[in-house]
Specification:
Length: about 200
């Protein structure tokens, strides 16, 4: 565009409404030095994530991120929405099913809410695809991971989080969806015409 814009528009509409040229020094600086609130949120997210995956081996950590991705990418049908309590219920039900299966008992545990039941089905499908018929070792690892996710959802609620989707929001921030453009990427076409 090579047009002049005011400092306020540059700071507030950069990349959101104004398509910035890739060589803009202000754009480069904003990417190198994000606002303090973003840095603080990233640090908090990493701190929480470390507590969730503490003492996991490599395979279990990969399984944690696979499960976190499945939760983050889960889109309920219609106008329905899931909250952290649904995540805790679904994770607990799948974990209990795996735990009983590892003891030789085939019994499918069910969550009490319909949204949690639908999420449970999505989690089971994602884990079944990842297992590749690995057997009881995979089921034990999956149960451990699901219990961690259940615990994380309950901890976020018990820590006084006012957002009922605090864990889901954390997973959305941490898990980068393949094929999606990052939030700071320039849009395809500008949405604001600058005279």
């Amino acid at each position: 565009m090579n047009e002049q814009i005011c400092a306020v528009c540059c700071g507030t509409k950069r990349v959101v409404e104004i398509r910035c040229p890739s060589g803009c020094p202000y754009l480069a600086t904003s990417r190198e030095h994000p606002p303090a609130v973003v840095v603080k949120q990233n640090r908090q997210d990493i701190g929480l994530l470390v507590t969730f995956i503490r003492d996991l081996n490599t395979r279990q950590s990969q399984l944690f991120f696979l499960t976190a991705t499945a939760i983050s990418q889960y889109k309920p049908a219609g106008l329905e929405s899931i909250v952290d309590d649904d995540v805790a219920e679904a994770a607990a039900a799948v974990a209990a099913t795996f735990e009983t299966a590892s003891r030789g008992v085939i019994y499918e545990h069910r969550p009490s809410s319909a949204p949690a039941e639908r999420l449970m089905s999505a989690l089971k499908a994602a884990l079944a695809e990842a297992s590749g018929g690995a057997g009881s070792a995979f089921e034990r690892d999956a149960a451990l991971i699901l219990r961690r996710i259940e615990d994380a959802a309950r901890r976020m609620r018990d820590a006084g989080q006012t957002n009922p989707r605090a864990l889901i929001a954390l997973l959305d921030r941490v898990v980068h969806h393949a094929g999606e453009t990052p939030p700071d990427a320039a849009p395809e076409t500008p949405r604001l015409i600058v005279p």
